[in-house]
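Example complex used in Figure S2.
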Amino acid sequence: MRKPKSKPSSSVPIRGSLFLFALLAPIAGALPVNDKKAPESLGDIKAIQDALLAAIPKAQTATVCIDLGDGSGSGVIVSEDGLVMTAAHVSTGVGKDVTVIMADGTKLKAETRGLDSETDAALIQITEKLPDGKPYPFLEINKADDTKLGDWVFSLGHSGGFDKDRGAVSRIGRLVRVANTTLQTDGALIGGDSGGPLFDMEGRLIGIHSRVGAVVGVNMHVPVKVFKDNWERMLKSEFIGEGPFVDKPEKGKGFLGIATKPAEGGIEVTKVGKKSPAEEAGIKEGDLLRTLNGEKLDSREKLQSILAELAEGDKLAFEITRDGKDETVNLKLGKR
Amino acid sequence: MALALPASAQQRLETNFRTTGAAVTAVFEPQREVIQKSSAVIYDGNKEIAYGTVISADGCILTKASEVEGVGKIDVRVDKESYRDAKVVMTDPRWDVALLKIEAADLTPVVFAPDSKLPRGTWVVVNGVTSRTNRRVLAGIISADAREIPPEGGAVLGVTLKETKKGLAVEEVSKDSGAEKAGMKKGDILTTIAGKPFKEIAALGKLLSEMKSGTDVKVTLLREGKKTELDVKLSARGDLFREASRNDEMSGDFSNRRSGFPRVIQHDVLGASHSMGGPVLDLEGRAVGMNIARANRAETYAIPAEELRELAEGMAKQVAATATQ
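Predicted assembly (661 residues):
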């Protein structure tokens, strides 16, 4: 759950096995009860239940908790190489290190990719293999984009944070409003669910949880279409839009946390800020910084001019000399 | 027939057809008939404070203890009938369950399901809203694995203490705490808990760490020099000293006691905190549990059928034993 931020509406952002019978004809796509305005018989509600019982176990394995250190959100793995769809206000930036927690509690390193700060869509890439080396469990996206108003849907998410004994919480609801960049359902979400998946009755992903209204029945999701429209740009780690779900990092406002003086062959570190990105990357007083991102650091002004073009989250690679030995130090600019 | 509706109207589902809408809940009429007969409504005056689960034809009803505690006069409605002055016969602090008794003869007790092993996604039906004569139902699904909900933050008396020359003195008694209900007062000097003496705050803390919230303990104290003994119900720290989290603010309404249950099943039926205590039915109309805590807007806990049946039988036996004495 993230700290509250002011948002444009009264809503608040929230962050906390398929059976195949070879001999049977495949069930064709949509659930027939979705064509009725309301279930009419025990058979109709049992059909919804059967669909849920078939879809939830698989959906469960691909729904992850995204641990941000100061809170958590949810996400869903959508490719066997570990690409995760989530909400932009969960990822909060491009190139950030986060931890993905699998359903069984396995913690994996991950890095945020691009995001759309206007619609609350984001991608995260898991960067660490599963302990057994197997492909990540993942789910199909509903590419047909054929969900319609009134369809029965279900939500999963790590409400209030990861709880292995409980598992991701499942909730049922209906699609009660459909707009270009927002789906609304009446299945209740709460903090920690942000970024978690919304499914149709075939267990295909149709949206990502984004925010809730003050009324329990008002729950908003980012439709998969928004993700599809921005897919390539997000894969390339682009920061799209100007908010409101994430503030765009400003160039020149990134935080490194060192003081330097001119020296022979580069610039010398005279002071390292406590808990600064520099300190966390292991930069020490007395280090000679020779190059930054391939450019020679022949003056303090040179360092400043490079940093003026970079923002929070951008990567820095220093070539340094410490106690006569050459080393490389990698880090990311922090927030000032 | 083509309807010429404006686009905005076409893109919004009418309330009637939403999950909690009348057109949808109508399909659960068979389960509603069970709720009508076997889910009691508990009142404090005109205010609905809880629901109840009817467990015997002669008027035994289980409900959520912490919702009826301290209510002077409890009235109950079952089906269309109203019953005055229900007696709290006994309570089980572990499960936060109270056994109420009303003067009745022909009630319809719930039928327990053989077990509560329901996979996620299974429909459950509960008492949603009620009028004087009619119960309405709400439906949802099993949403998590059955599990224990440990007490939030350990057992506490509900007092702030100060080490003085005379001994450990009560500085302040917390509102709604077991200490307050037992009549503990500022200035009392605490000397023993469950028969064990202590002199410092740390020693009392150690003794409390081995106790469970919800249980009653004997506390001896000196009040104006006189030795007094009180039965104090221990509270869970998290239930008593709650810092409203952001999720709580979002939830609006949740049960005061929502932790410290040996095992619960969880569902997603939207409800208010005063809607606890009623039966949770499966599609066959059998009780798979009894609602015991609305944890937040997305999570409701219920006592599973197995434990509920055991609890009901145990309490009924004790009542019978007391009656024949």
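Residues 152 and 174 of chain A are 4 Å apart (CA to CA). DSSP finds five helices and 22 strands in chain A.
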